[in-house]
Amino acid sequence: MFIVISTSGDGVPPTDARAWYDSLARTTLKLFNLKFSVLALGDSNYPHFCRTGRIVDQRLEYLGASPIVQRSDVDMEDWSVISDWIEKVIAALATVAIETRIDYLSPRLPRNNDQHDRNRPFMAKMIVKRNLTKMTSADDKQTIHCEFNLEGSGLSFTAGDALGIYPQNNPTEVQYLLEVLHCTGEEVVDVPSWAYLPKAVGLTLLVALMKYYDLKHVKPELVQALQEGASDTIKKKIGMDLLRDGLSKKNAKLHKYLEEREVADVLLEMGGDSTLKIHKVLENLRGLQPRYYSISSSPVVDSNIACVTAAVVRYKTLGRQRTGVTTTFLEDRLSIEQTCPVFISQNPDFRLPSNKQLPIIMIGPGTGIAPFRAFIQERVHSNATGANLLYFGCRHEHKDFLYANELEAWAAQGHLILRTAFSRDQNYKVYVQDVLREDAQIIWSYLQAGACLYVCGDAKHMAHDVHRALIDICQLHMDQSEAVKYLTFLEENQRYQKDVWVT
């Protein structure tokens, strides 16, 4: 058995694999005759890198199975590691006797062709778009609120789920890339295998680059292809130097180079003299992936409306202005009454407690407020009696206090206990973790009363700092090792849930 499995969010299995993963955790079957290997996919920016694959690997060995190839952990799309694992698996297959059987396979249920999902997204109309922030200086960040009409889609969602949005690339950036490639955009190219339905027939290069290819994140394989096709000895030497330590993440020099550049940058620097054909360039580009936004509205308010809260990304590197693909698509290029492809991404690991009497603690600075707006709407609508305690943080109270009027109204009505941290409104920085420590006794009393704890936002810094603050709070009542175990206990019992991402 060969298993390829990713780790989602803060160390949990992907939604589609949850039933199988849970059954593996519960089973007492003895698997002494099973040979297996695991390819664990992850992102080292998250604290629980490849956690799901590692647990599956350990569990199978515990049940008596034997690894025929040792587990490989893949950091993002590190194809050198993936290819190495595949080669080892193919070699290992030649050493074992395999009896081909099909009676253990379960046929898939027939697909409803009207069902909308990631592969067949729904064209949803944007019906509302408004600014949530005030922009008075170059340092200020813009955040927008968008609403999509899902009526007639058959899509349903639960508070805590995300809306997947397929963006289109910036036409100006696409045109710049066409100039770099010395192409008109009218060239006919193959439809990529990952293209969402309905697929175009007779796809032009212009449309392909607009809808299906990632122009921001450069695959190491593109550098390799350009180096191999270069005739200029200087550029060939630059490529060889970058590739000296291979394509994997272990080659820090190569990946630092790629992090600072987009596809057009690399083609300009390394491919000016290249004879690389357009199909070869496309073969070495990443697919343009959907972006996921926590839905900031509850279906109990309106099941046909999904709201998202997005921070618009604009920055500068190597002397050129850069933009976030989806956020600027929503802000600059998608107008009210226009449509874009969307689908629902379920998040069963981020759910309100079924017991409406339990208190909840929500920690969500910046756009981390999104799912908590949905949570509060639902708790108010369902007359939940448990307290709703929210910790929100931003830079300035009068510039980026997202949904301030709604939150303050709920607080005035007694539906919400609102605690805020405005980091730059005083001479010293104040963050949500600082306010948590101030409220240590309140937090502890809520946890002792059975509260569920939620964190949403930046995984790399905020979630880590909040977790450290929670350990400190628990250490007022127990030693450090017990505090760590207590938070682990809360996680295992779905009382400490995280919806976090790396920015």
Description:
It is a single chain. The protein contains 18 helices and 21 strands. The protein has 503 residues and is α/β, with parallel strands linked by helices. It has a 6-stranded antiparallel sheet, covered by helices on one side. Helix 2 links the parallel strand 2 and strand 3. Helix 4 (171-181) runs parallel beside helix 9, helix 6 packs antiparallel against helix 7 (233-242) and helix 17 crosses helix 18 (480-492).
Taken from the alpha-carbon principal axes, the silhouette is: globular
What Rg is obtained from the alpha carbons, in whole angstroms? 25 Å
The main sheet orders its strands as 12-7-16-5-6-13
Q: How many helical stretches?
A: 18
